[in-house]
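In full, the data:

***
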Amino acid sequence: MHIYEAKLLGALKGGSAGSLEELERSLGIGRDSILWAMENLSKQGAIKIDKRKEYAVSLTDEGSRDLSGFPEEELAASLLKSGRKADIKSIKDGIGLMWAKKNGWVTVSGDSAALTKEGESAASGSKPYALKETLKQIASGAGAVAGYVTSHDQQFDSLIRRKLITLRERQAISGISITDTGIRMLGSAPQDDGLISSMSREVIIGRKWETQKFKAYDPNEASEPVYPARLHPMHELINHVRSVWLNMGFIEVSGPIIESAFWNFDALFSPQDHPTRDMHDTFFLSNPSQIDIGDIALLGRVRSMHRKGWGEPWREGLAKKALLRTHTTSVSAHYIKKLSNELESSYPIKIFSVGKVFRNESIDYKHVAELYQTDGIIIGNNLTLANLKDVLTRFYSKLGLKPLFKPSYFPFVEPGLEAYYYDEQHKSFIELAGGGIIRKEIAKAMGTSKSILAWGIGVDRLMFNFLELNSLIDMYKNEVDWLRKRAELKI
């Protein structure tokens, strides 16, 4: 038995200890040494360690702001000044209205909200708002946690639901006592082998390493988990996707997330009355609401392409609408125009992009509003669909997938195809990519007569093959514990 273990058992023989601080004062040795001895003795059943839950509470940024006044308080004060009634449409703060109604401060009838007597008391300050008083108590640190742990006070629950405070649970030692096994162990003389078992404060101050040796380290001993810094799994996958394209001889390019409808839709021959332009699929912006195109000649060619191809009027105002790009194919469109006058010796030109895109669509296990795509194009001579299938097959083979292909339609390619695979976990087919040969009308409008292969690949959906996920949403919960402990990607 080590001398530290013997000292600890001796201190506990007369009764239990309430905290580590008590043991530090009575034993005269450092906390690390005591913890080491406790760990060893606990494994041998010589001591019993009782633990309790503790909570660390803190205000969020929103909670700090609400210290000066809750939204429902401000609403009640506003109604008191304006004659105790207001049109619902004039009340901009829906949170304040919701909580004022829940507190019984206002009643809603038809299109108007009226202040009640309880609301008048709250607005005049004659009756303190209990929720605000609790928040102030937490801010001052006076007994807030104890109140929550012992009674689960409703005020605390409300503050947590409103994300005004955060609670962090932790285990704390509430008592340490010796067992019968520990008493028997005390009968044997302590064996102080004179070895240093840990680098404690006393060892450093006393420079004991100069006269004593260190105890051999046992790698099998239990230790605290260590969580080194690591990338988010999506960033890991994106980096791998990027390396695959680079190793296949492609050059990486990028483009803006905020784009004009011209480059996102019109330049890609998507008709102006196509359903994907509706608000339910596309996030249009109000500031800026429009983005100028600038290239008058290009505008003219695209206008002619639409009028001839779709037989419908083409409106420049719709093309200028600002939006969050719905695909990274908009980046490819920019570069088809940019690379239209390269020297013949430069072909074939192979480029790719990786970036975030936005879709205003229903959320399910394989659909999210924000996702990552990787797009690519090859510009050259006499390129065929067989060349595209070969590129996609080689790309997916680097990711351990064997894609299946089927014909498909996209406004900007002819012919077109889709790549997909069967997901065993969800028992369904997962679409991986869409692509084809860029229509000659588009190539001509962009200023080139070359043939162009183009494709767009959903990166997020690849994650089903590399990480056990029930839904893509699981990746974006920002749960630190999951990020620390999640499995390595099986790439």
Remarks:
- The two ends are 48 Å apart (CA to CA).
- The chain has three domains: 3-52+170-210, 61-163, 235-257+325-485.
- Confidence is low (pLDDT under 50) at residues 146-152.
